[in-house]
Structures are given as structure tokens and as C-alpha cells.
Amino acid sequence: MKIFLRILCYLVDFIIIMFAVQIVLIGFLDMPMDVGLTPITFFMMTYCIYNVLFTYYMHGQTPGKAVGRLCVVDDRQPVEEGKKQPTPELHALFLRETCKALYFFPIVGQLAGLVMLFMIIIGRAPLHDRVGKTAVVFIGKSKQ
């Protein structure tokens, strides 16, 4: 169940980011969205910035994670039920999201993405959570 919730949250964020990237690249810069280095690089940079800023300033959540009531927390600090979750530091979020952006590289990234899904399915922390020393937790009805 947790894997499906994480995928749903990821898809919400992915759609928001892709929509924004298309508006900028096609609408403002008049650049076609064919497969090329510039659009992919721009998408990966936007992806990292979006996730870092939203996660940091929305106390561990992006809009997608808010839909699924998931929260990114610092795994080095204890999580106490009923209390505010510890938000990871900015540099840890940057490392986490940079690692996640690597999943968009052809072949190697796709293989790493499959390994990441497998790790989530068996209940282990994926590589990006290990690198950033973070964890994704379900926060329930109220974050407090």
C-alpha cells in the first residue's frame, strides 16, 4: 500500500513540474520538447529545486506528498507521534533530490529507479533517502 501511495504522490509532483517546464520551454523560450540535452537538464534542475524548496518550506511536504499525507523527515532525529515532524536540513534535502534526479538519466537511471522501487517494496529505504539521511513517513489526519 505504501508503494502505491508514494507513486501517486510522485505522479502529482511530476505532473506539476512537467506542466511548469512545458510552459517555460514552449511558452516563453519557444523551445520544442523533443528529446535533447537542454530540456532534460532543465527538467532535472527544476525537479530538484521544486522538491527541495517545497519540502523545506512546507515542513517536509511537496504538494504531491500533501495529497497522500506523506512527510519527509530527518531520520537521525526520533519521530514522536502527535508532535511536529523534524524537517531535514537544506543540504540534506539537496543531496536527496540530486540523487533522485539521477533516476532520469537513460539506462543507468532507469535501472537505479527499478532498484529503488524494489527497495521500497521490500520495506527498505531507497538510495535517495539513505544519501540524504531522510525517511518518508505517513502523517495521518493532522500534522500538528
Structural write-up:
The chain is mostly helical and 144 residues long. It has one domain (2-138). Helix content is 60%, strand content 7%. The protein contains six helices and two strands, in the order αααβαααβ. A two-stranded antiparallel sheet has the order 1-2. The longest helix has 27 residues, at 2-28.
Percent helix, as a range, is: 55-70%
Give the termini separation.
Answer: 24 Å
* Radius of gyration from CA coordinates: 16 Å
β-strand amount: 5-15%
Give a short account of the largest sheet. Answer: 2 strands, antiparallel
How do the strands and helices of this protein lay out in sequence?
Blueprint: H1 2-28, H2 37-57, H3 63-68, E1 70-74, H4 90-101, H5 108-121, H6 127-132, E2 134-138
Antiparallel strand pairs: 1-2
Brief write-up:
This protein is mostly helical. The chain has six helices and two strands, in the order H-H-H-E-H-H-H-E. Helix 1 packs across helix 2 (37-57) and helix 2 packs antiparallel against helix 4 (90-101).
List key phrases describing it.
144 residues; mainly alpha; two-stranded antiparallel sheet; globular
